């Protein structure tokens, strides 16, 4: 009789362990970029990260997207431009929406605000700029041009006398 109970206990323990592992996996809602890897600024070490919050209904966001596309295209070696949908659209729907909006740079899915310890924006568009070490360098509210973003980065660089971005 004790052999039976020992095997039953062993099966219950294994079942409980599997259940808890499953629950932990299901609860992992860490932000990721489109590569399905958990989002981390370390992925972009050595680059400036421009993290832009946008929404489909936001007219200034729509106006800003071509400027962000330009920034990414002209400075892809130095800057990573990433989009975050304010309305928390995720998955295939986010990819479709980003294509519809003409976004030609990466998206972060889901919102990385908690991961990065940022407060969610209260107005749009909002852009966070992180330096190549991952430190928050600026928070900009309102539409930005590529030139304005580069100027802000250059302003942050100036006190550090770091190498300017390539033209």
Provide structural commentary:
With 167 residues, the chain is of the alpha/beta class. The protein folds into 2 domains: 1-28; 32-160, Glutaredoxin (3-Layer(aba) Sandwich). Helix content is 43%, strand content 19%. It has a 6-stranded mixed β-sheet, covered by helices on one side. Strand 3, helix 3 and strand 4 (106-109) form a beta-alpha-beta unit. Helix 2 (59-74) packs across helix 5 (146-160). The longest helix has 25 residues, at 2-26.
Number of domains: 2
Q: What's the name of the CATH homologous superfamily of the largest domain?
A: Glutaredoxin
Which architecture of the largest domain would the CATH scheme give at its second level? Answer: 3-Layer(aba) Sandwich
**Beta-strand content estimate:** 15-25%
The secondary-structure element order is: HEEHEHEHEEH
Structural class: alpha/beta
Low-pLDDT stretches: 16-35
């Amino acid at each position: 009789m004790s052999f039976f109970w020992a095997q039953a206990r062993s099966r219950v323990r294994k079942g409980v362990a599997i259940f808890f592992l499953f629950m932990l996996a299901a609860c992992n809602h860490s932000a990721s970029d489109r590569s399905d890897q958990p989002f981390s600024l370390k992925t972009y070490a050595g680059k400036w990260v421009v993290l832009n919050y946008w929404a489909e209904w936001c007219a200034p966001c729509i106006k800003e997207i071509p400027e962000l596309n330009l920034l990414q295209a002209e400075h892809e070696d130095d800057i990573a431009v990433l989009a975050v949908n304010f309305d928390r659209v995720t998955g295939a729907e986010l990819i479709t929406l980003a294509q519809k909006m003409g976004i030609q740079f990466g998206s972060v899915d889901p919102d990385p605000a908690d991961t990065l310890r940022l407060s969610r924006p209260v107005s749009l568009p909002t852009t966070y700029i992180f330096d190549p070490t991952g430190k928050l360098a600026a928070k900009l509210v309102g539409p930005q041009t590529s030139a304005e973003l580069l100027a802000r980065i250059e302003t942050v660089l100036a006190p550090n006398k770091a190498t300017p971005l390539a033209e």
